[in-house]
Specification:
Helix content is 60%, strand content 3%. By secondary structure, it is mostly helical. It has two domains: 1-77, Orthogonal Bundle (Multidrug-efflux Transporter Regulator, Chain: A, Domain 2); 79-130. Helix 1 (6-13) crosses helix 3.
Length: 130
């Protein structure tokens, strides 16, 4: 029987063993075969699956979304739709962060040194309204 043991797979994919087992429990990684001694033995393709999981997480996908992406490997999968949805989410977050940044920069420029005093000033850019 050929394949990678748990530690070998974790090292090859750049994850720790606990992460590997967690992904297996979550169903992101197929349960491996076992050696006669009971050791897990993963197919080589598991390295690619783990790298895909980590890349998707870096792009902002949750593990539930990653599971959905992995389940949609069939030809009728709507990967472009999922990616477009995530892109829209990222755009909304960028807009929110841009607004927060502008408010913080305005507060810095206005010289707000005390939040209570600033909240009573009509020039204060901080959003104290209910």
């Amino acid at each position: 029987m050929t394949g990678l043991r748990t530690g070998q797979l974790a090292a090859a994919a750049g994850v720790n063993v606990q992460t590997l087992r967690y992904y297996e429990r979550r169903g992101l990684l197929a349960e491996p075969g076992r050696t006669l001694g009971g050791h897990r033995l993963y197919p080589e393709a598991s390295v690619t699956v783990l790298r895909v999981i980590k890349a998707a997480q870096r792009l902002g996908f949750t593990l539930a979304e990653v599971a959905d992406l992995l389940a949609r490997r069939q030809p009728d999968a709507d990967l472009p739709g999922l990616v477009a949805g995530k892109l829209g989410e990222v755009d909304r977050k960028l807009a929110e962060l841009t607004a927060v940044r502008a408010t913080l920069a305005a507060a810095l420029h206005a010289g707000c040194a005390d939040l209570v005093a600033c909240s009573e000033s009509p020039e204060c850019p901080m959003p104290f309204a209910p």
